[in-house]
Amino acid sequence: MQKYQRVAFEPIIDGNVQTDPKRRKIVLTQADIDTARGEGFAEGEQSAIAAAAKQSADALRSIAHMMQLLLGKLHSEATQLRTDALDVAMAAAFAIADAALAKCGEETIKQYLHDATKNLPDSAKIIVKTSPEIAASISEQLEQAAKDAGYDGKLVVKSDAETQNYDCAIEWQGGAISHNKAATIAAIEQAATEWLHAADSTEMQLDLFEP
User: Fold this and answer.
1) How far apart are CA 75 and CA 94, in angstroms?
2) 7, 36, 156, 208: most buried by Cβ count inside 10 Å?
């Protein structure tokens, strides 16, 4: 019978084989955890900032478009207000011209007309209402845009809690004179009548707008 000899094979190690059968554990230090947490927070913060910037930009574009549509109306309204002021001045002039010129002189009439029209606005205001989240961040840009368009100080940005989702509302404020011109002219005519009557009675120059 043929005999077989047992041969012992030795493993060959080439440096690429895991010799330890146990899986190695990855150990994270507290510093590693803190660093990872900080990086995650920074990424989240940047994302939030980017989202807020986009929302502000979207709101600005929407408001800028609405403002552009209103600029033409603003010019028209300002012209109408100046026309109203002229009508008031002419009413005052016709109301007192004859007797007043004879009694008081030209300078008194000029002062009267100035007093009659000094409170008339020469243009309207734009009021922009937007959500509290963006009111502060967009007010400077909108005010600068209004200034560049020739309406410095005539735009007001207001925070409105009822305006949601970065919407906005633009209100038009034309000034009381454009809505009450007839009443204003009637009051001037009445004041002129009373003033002239008092001047005839007392031979004194009275203040037309004395309380």
Assistant:
1) 29
2) 208
